[in-house]
Amino acid sequence: MRLLAIPWFWWLLVGEGRVVAAAWLAVAVGATDWVDGYLARRLDQVSAVGKVLDPVADRLMIGSVVVGGLVAGVVPAVIGVALVARELAVGIGALVLGARGGGALEVRSLGKAATFLVYGAVPAFYFDAAGYLPWLFGPLGWFGGVVGIVLYYWVAVEYLEDMRRVLREATN
Fold first, then answer.
1. Burial code of 155-165, b = ≥16 C-beta within 10 A, e = fewer?
2. How many C-beta neighbours within 10 Å does residue 101 have?
3. 102-132, pLDDT tens digit by residue?
4. Angle subtended by helix axes 109-129 and 77-99, to nearest 10
5. What are phi and psi of 104, to 5 degrees?
6. How many domains are there within the chain?
7. CATH of the domain at 128
């Protein structure tokens, strides 16, 4: 369902120019991501497909919200470019890993925290740019964005090290 929200997000942002509605949709997708993961673990319904689709849905939605925000001029370039560069690096690494039969990596708790911060920060920039409680959303966007990026890059280095280890073990 979260994957189906991506075209809707783009329609709201680009087709309709409804920045606040697009931001609320991003928030809802982020909330359902957390609920979905919580319920899957709690009800012991974690699946191999879910382990692959969940991060794909996260990456595609975060990428859409960031790139859309850059295009719409609501996400600061320093935040948006840093997020896109990180996503590209980890995404390419994951593709290489998958192509070489390395499988999917385990999601890290710190990565979940970073995703939470980014899922909150980027829509906050949308709300701020639309004049929706800027005294609240401006500082929240910058705080969550900066801390989220630091954590995202920290975890990216850990993931890349994991990928290197898995590939090294596969060739030995």
1. bbeebbebbee
2. 9
3. 776 777 889 889 988 988 899 999 999 999 9
4. 140
5. -95, 145
6. 1
7. 1.20.120
